[in-house]
Amino acid sequence: MPWKHAHAHINRLSHTHIFKHNLKLRNLQMTVMSNWRLLKLETHNAYINMAIDEAILRTKIENLVPDTIRFYRWKPSAVSIGKFQNIKKEVHIENCRKHGVDIVRRITGGGTVYHDAQGEITYSVVTNKKDLKAENITAVYTRIYNGITEALKILGIDADFSEGNTKTCPNLTVKGKKISGSAQTHKIGVVLQHGTLLVDVDLEKMFTFLRVPWTRTCMEVVNVAKNKITSIKKEFGKNISIEEVNQALVEGFQKALSIKFEDGELTAYESALVEKLHKEKYSTDEWNLQGKSSLD
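Predicted structure:
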């Protein structure tokens, strides 16, 4: 081989080697940057659940913890209302008290939600918006909902993203029926998005606690809701375990966000903050009924 041709060949090999080396470095950096903390599935009452979500958000704003996702359930069953809602217009308060159903106000917007102790898994994502590579609120919803879409796909269910409208937050639907709803709050470049995935649904029970202004009876709204709300069980036509759904969510979020989960737990700082928020905010009528708190 003539020297100039050999020299060019060596240069090509050298450039190829450098390119591959740099690609490996970039992939390694991406892997390091995309590690998220996973908090294992737990069950708490409504006030502790909301205190944990806010504690993680506050701690993330201080850059003391990594991007975090947690999955949780509610015991007893609960109704959560959006930060700006009027509880008397949204909730059958006496029915909740009679049946031992907690009522809690979220720090996120959105509407009123019934959280059944047996029928759902709730997810909570706390992350820097830049880590999601999302430029606006809808893009954040889309990115996070991709995790649930992938989870449902793993379970054999195809879901569609709905951008919502001025009255409803973006949500996921299956054949036009809502299966997952979420709400957000944004502070200093950090987003908290939490929402439900309906594993099973009892509409009559749900609307025993949720007030719908246009209806006169519970069954009137139930008959309408049958065509608008679904669940994993309804789509399958059989029972599915919470553990199976939880595992699908873990796998779905990892795939959709191109992240790697590392099992973790709340830090001592977060745990102390949870206790304070639980006692001084989420367990108080001042917050839950009036939307006021000395901690805000």
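Summary: Residues 39-290 form a domain with the BirA Bifunctional Protein; domain 2 fold (CATH 3.30.930.10).
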